[in-house]
Batch of 4 targets.
Target 1
Amino acid sequence: MPALAESYAFCRGVARKRARNFYYSFVLLPREQSDAMCAIYAFMRYCDDLSDEPGASREAMERWRGALVNALAGKFDEYPAWPAFCDTVQHYQIPHEYFFQMIEGVTSDLEPRAFQTFDELYRYCYQVASVVGLCTIHVFGFESPQALPLAEKCGVAFQHTNILRDISEDAARERVYLPAEDLRRFGVDSHELSNQKPNEVRRRLMEFEAGRARAYYRESQPLVDMIHKRSRPALRALIGIYSRLLTRIEERNFDVFTERVGLSAAEKCWIVLLAWMGR
């Protein structure tokens, strides 16, 4: 296994290469915290990739869960991120349950998705995104326990934004994340979600879901002032990038079907600059 410094360097390389949104916020953190965020990201990235690769199976995810159990007990396999990951978890006293929740959430993606209610979708968002937010605020630092439910809501806002952005490509892979109760309410068939032709009924559904994401952004807003001062620019940057992505979807009249919606590197850098300035 690599030495601790080498392990952190590996994690930083993964984050720099793969964390298209998160890495922009990492640069606003002191080096120790930035390294910790890269270590957490390396774990989450591998976990997510494992569920998406060809031939992914519950057996493979169970082996990964076992590797996590062993790593937290100090027994590492060949994955280079383990030393840095475990050092981060121990140093920032991050509850282990968050990482097992993440595995459970991505494992559920191995089968075609169909959520009947928003409560079911919320549970999924908690497992794959809110737990990331909860890990993050442990690194950022906080005192009030009220920060925990706000971090949970912030994660739901981020994940719901991702769901809206990726709705067409997910549908093509038989992953329909929008609740069946919402599809019925707006008269949208799940098979329409991969159709690139403009559709007013589908647009109204998207507008409703975007409003739901906006509500979670508003509810989680007090979180910024609850974390330690030196970490606030990084959190402002994260929220700024994801909320701007939602704004871009709205500006395109909710057309995420003909072209993937995203932000340019220049836009993300501008958001990071504003976050650093406290705006």
Target 2
Amino acid sequence: MGQPVVHFEIIGKDPDKLWSCYGDLFGWEFDPTAPAAEAISQPGNYGFVDRNTTSDGTGIPGGVGGGMGYDTHAIFYVGVPNVEAALQKAESLGGTRRMGPERNPGADLVVGHFTDPEGNLIGLAGSQGSSLLTKLRAGSPIGGEKSATRGNGSNGTKSSAKV
């Protein structure tokens, strides 16, 4: 069996605008309380999206964030046992390391980015401790412990918490 896609991100220069757009469009709610690596997003500007699943259980967790000075992109992360080893292998196959490995503060998570031979940005995620896949299957957000959510309420308005 190959390595699974375990997380997605949408990064831009105005996270508030992205949260509003994706919250209104898809009904997503964001948890900005868990820390994200500064290489990924400005502190406080990254909102984790719960694992929104369909009736058959499909769906993966993700995050939306960024801030001024962050390149706009969408990316998916593949779960790997060792991020450094996977980055080295990607380089040996014609890819280019773009970031990492970086440890996420407050979590057993290491991430890295590379571009494939065609220039597509791809993410890698691995756990420092217990299995990343075990944590994700249990519903843990990829960045840390969940403590609050915010996004669109049932009336279509944002919550009063600072986004």
Target 3
Amino acid sequence: MPRSFLTGAELSAAELDALLTRAVELKAAPLSSRALEGRSVALVFEKPSTRTRLSFDVGVHELGGHPVVLRGDELQLSRGEALRDTALVLSRHVAAVGVRTGPHGTLEELAAYTSVPVINMLTTQHHPCQALADLMTLREGYGELRGLRLAYVGDGNNVARSLAILGTLAGLEVAIASPPGYELEGDLAPPAGAAGSLRLYGDPREAVAGACAVYTDVWVSMGDEESAAERRDALAAYRVDDALLDAAAPGAFALHDLPAHPGEEITAEVLYGDRQRIWDQAENRRHAQKALLELLVGES
């Protein structure tokens, strides 16, 4: 059974450290690896995408491979074909499968029946490829990750959960602040071998105290449109602005996985100013995912 990347907890701390080191190397020399020479990777999109689509498509190409982009409505899945059957067919043609979908169970079922690695490009529960890029961006800014404090303010969603898992595995102290009803689950434990810690807060200023970076995400995600007004009211105090950055450690910068809504979860001044590494994050998706593909496809 090939190893997949569904939550990030599949990696050991040492593997995550080596992956981030490799990602930095690949950023410095984007065309230096031909790990996918003569091979194809299926990229299945059941959800809209900008950064994931671009970074995986270009990244597979830079590794010498062919990205096969498949929209959900282009597959027989949309007409009722079983996930198991789709998995068996994909396995006969490609070296790996990336999936961007809704229910995490869909990804788990697909991975159970494939004979190639499956990569989580986003589910409602987890967004681990984004967390890899986030950690790479922090490493570029600070070097050693162990012992740093990363604050996330806002909805305790898939991005927050992946930061909690992979951030603690990298040795970070991950501090997450959310309003009542939007908290990350209190029983979420760091993965095996994690040297970091997870702390949950209600007050965003408590979470950002001593933090080297302050992270946020949209208040209204895909599928949350019906509760948009309620969510904006609940999250209004969790906006990342200059004042919140001032409450963090000296030199702290803002992070955001995008797309952003200036004036809601982040101010335009921070988003487009010099106190952020957000656009580096967006680029680093490609390099971190290339390192991940090298690891997974190299094992299979």
Target 4
Amino acid sequence: MTTLDNRPNTALLVVDVQNGVVAGAPGRDDVVANIGSLVEKARREEVPVVWVQHSSEALAPGSGAWQIVPELSPAAAEPLVPKTYGDSFEATSLESVLSDLGVGRLVVVGAQTDACVRSTLHGAFVRGYDALLVSDAHTTGDLTAWGAPPPEQVIAHTNLYWVHQTAPGRTAGTVATTDVDFA
């Protein structure tokens, strides 16, 4: 249903599953395992897997914190999009990568829920993509010291409000890892 012409394909978009991003995040191991199972499923079904990797002062390129977690390994042929803003589309090659792949529907996983995942979901949706969030394959850090709700509430709230996103000609929603259908 995407509003993007001639873009019938789906891609799995893996956002910022990096050592320094998910270290200490609630459910980190389960989330990474769920992402890993989706990566394998996408590969089996010949669905593109697109990786996004954030750089910042705390995530300096080449540093241990910047590296994708050791449980996940982008394949040599899978696009890896570097970024410096929350929205994975801003000042990156993501749009051209997805266009070249004929992708109009994204299945989104990763971290952090209340920053890069949320920004990327909204960025995709306003650009005309169908955007599906995998409810048990994203996580975030604890920002309660700065007044944020506990991470589990941030994750639950994001899952709740993304179910109800609507726009003409586009679909959104959430789905559990076991129920992801790339077709």
